Amino acid sequence: MTLSAVGTAAVSQLTAAKPVVNFGTIPVAKKTTVYVDVTNSGNTPAIVTGTAALPSPFAAPIRPEKDLPFNPSYDLTLPVTFTPAKAGTFTAHYKLTWSDLKGTHTLEVVLTGKAT
């Protein structure tokens, strides 16, 4: 009897459902919320280590807990708000950091919105 096997490297990979999230066009001073959907599409657990602060007029009212275990196939739905105080087009980068056996990694999602 002969046995054989194929090994798969352990990797955590956080991916966003949408790499760019557009809030569309809204009136000045109106608040709108969108959700950034993140999945661990890898085959090993990750640990969420944090999110970077967002510049105004964007905000992350709920952030994942530091050291949150994030297993393969798990999903996170993270709210992000856009509340422009003046007219214009705005862009920011939502950054989620995680770690695994291979080090620290960052997922970046581009946020865009326009106020009239």
Structure write-up:
This protein is mainly β and 116 residues long. It has one domain: Immunoglobulin-like, CATH 2.60.40. 0% of the residues lie in helices and 55% in strands. The protein is built from no helices and 9 strands. The strands form 2 sheets. Strands 2-9-8-4-6 form a 5-stranded mixed β-sheet, with no helix packed on it. A hairpin with a 2-residue loop joins strand 8 and strand 9 (103-115).
Oligomer: single chain
Q: Provide the CATH architecture.
A: Sandwich
Q: What count of domains describes the coordinates?
A: 1
Radius of gyration: 18 Å
- What's the arrangement of strands in the largest beta sheet? 2-9-8-4-6
The helical percent reads under 10%
Q: Flag low-confidence runs.
A: none
Structural class: mainly beta
Which geometry do the CA atoms define?
A: elongated
> What is the CATH class name?
Mainly Beta
Proportion in β-strands: over 45%
Helix count, per DSSP? 0
Elements, N to C (H/E): EEEEEEEEE
Largest sheet: 5 strands, mixed
At the fold tier of CATH, the topology name is Immunoglobulin-like
